[in-house]
Automatic annotation (TrEMBL):
Domain of life assignment: Eukaryota
Fe2OG dioxygenase domain location: 207-311
Protein name as it appears in the record: Clavaminate synthase-like protein
GO molecular function terms noted in the UniProt entry: metal ion binding; oxidoreductase activity
InterPro entries registered for this protein in UniProt: DIOX_N, IPNS-like_FE2OG_OXY, IPNS-like_sf, Iron_ascorbate_oxido_reductase, Oxoglu/Fe-dep_dioxygenase_dom
One annotated GO biological process: small molecule biosynthetic process
Entry keyword set: Iron, Metal-binding, Oxidoreductase
Compositionally biased intervals (Polar residues): 144-162
Disordered: annotated span: 138-162
Family to which this protein belongs: Belongs to the iron/ascorbate-dependent oxidoreductase family.
Membrane-spanning ranges: none
Length: 364
């Protein structure tokens, strides 16, 4: 169940930091000041040569990251035809026969890259599983498209690519999207640094070979109210860019401070940007990693292509100087270790048979 009512209180449940959480639904006099819409920010200034333009953008971005944790990046400048072509390619992939997709099943790799079948993800344990299928790829020094130095720790292939002759279109299409999103993310990270009152290049040394993931997702229309496309959760990276198809809404929704779900429908020429758990951690909770979910109630097929961006795997981070409180001790954490821990929780929930507490990986 997504919502339960006790005699006096109603709660909404979600998965936050890999841990189940809940929030009281507040209405009337108990309601607090919170957002009721996701702000739209014109990103054209991200390409401006003038620092003061980039600073004015950073100011708007910083307010959205603090107050909402989500914003629409409008006029992002990424080629629309490239985005349309990528949507066409992922639709073509998901339309392939099951056995072609299952060749690259995600449970065959340590990083859970490849194909995730319907109902295999289960971010909300109260549901029968996520009503979606997906394909995940990301940083992989052995993929020549990434032009990354191969060090001993990254020498094993991480991505899986289908080999059936009918799938040759897929890899180049995803890599075109990957390259465009990576380049936009690097610019956005500099805006984030400015928004945190840091030098623009502050994060550059820890993002030379960033951890990245594209998750191509297909959500069929759902007919049962108790189903979810993806259960309520926060993301475990620095930030996520979501490119969503114009079809099917309402679908993506974010949870405000009063426990109400706010719709985030498609908006032309925009990505949805959301702050995720690492940026919440390093800002000591000043920036919000906002709970969100997808319920495809619009009666149409929906496709989306989240791009998840994090620092280098070896990086160690902690709460930024400007966000520390006197007298508190702050631990460092390893980005790669933290990420892998969260990945394990996220990708094995459905394998953990109730009561047994044992996670079985069927393929490795
Ligand atoms: O499909 C979407 O709009 C969002 C997907 C999402 O939240 C995720 O993959 O973490
Ligand atoms: Fe998410």
């Amino acid at each position: 169940m997504l919502i339960t009512e006790t005699e006096t209180e109603t709660y909404v449940y979600y998965h936050d930091g890999g841990i189940p959480g809940r929030r009281r639904v507040l209405t009337g006099a108990t309601a607090k000041q919170t957002f009721n819409a996701v702000p739209k920010i014109d990103m054209r200034r991200i390409y401006s040569e003038s620092l003061s333009d980039r600073q004015s953008l950073a100011k708007e971005v910083g307010a959205a990251c603090r107050d909402v944790g989500f914003f629409y990046a409008v006029n992002h400048g990424v080629d629309e035809a490239l985005l349309d072509d990528t949507f066409a390619a992922i639709k073509q992939f998901f339309d392939l026969p099951e056995e072609v997709k299952m060749e690259v099943h995600n449970q065959k790799t340590e990083k859970y890259r490849g194909y995730e079948a319907f109902l295999e993800g289960k971010l909300d344990p109260g549901t029968r599983g996520d009503l979606k299928e997906g394909f995940l790829m990301g940083e992989d020094a052995t993929d020549p498209e990434q032009n990354t130095p191969i060090t001993p720790s990254t020498a094993k292939p991480r991505n899986q690519w289908p080999t059936h002759p009918s799938t040759t279109f897929f890899r180049p299409a995803l890599y075109r999207y990957y390259t465009a999103m990576l380049s936009f993310s690097r610019r956005l990270l500099r805006i984030f640094a400015l928004a945190l009152d840091l030098p623009e290049t502050h994060f550059d040394p820890i993002t030379t070979t960033p951890m990245t993931n594209i998750r191509a997702v297909h959500y069929p229309p759902q007919s049962r109210d108790e189903d979810v496309g993806i259960g309520a959760h926060t993301d475990f990276c620095w930030f996520t860019l979501v490119c969503q198809s114009p079809t099917a809404h309402p679908a993506l929704e974010v949870l405000n401070g009063n426990g109400h779900w706010i719709p985030v429908p498609f908006h032309p020429s925009s990505f949805v940007v959301n702050i995720a758990d690492f940026l919440k951690l390093v800002t000591g909770g000043t920036w919000a990693s906002t709970v969100h979910r997808v319920r495809n109630m619009g009666g149409e097929e929906r496709y989306s292509m989240p791009f998840f961006f994090s620092p280098n795997e070896e990086a160690r981070v902690s709460v930024l100087e400007g966000f520390r409180r006197e007298g508190e001790r702050y631990e460092e954490f390893g980005v790669g270790e933290y990420f892998q821990r969260r990945l394990e929780v996220d990708r094995t929930t459905h394998l953990d048979k109730e009561g047994e507490g044992v996670v079985r990986r069927p393929y490795i």
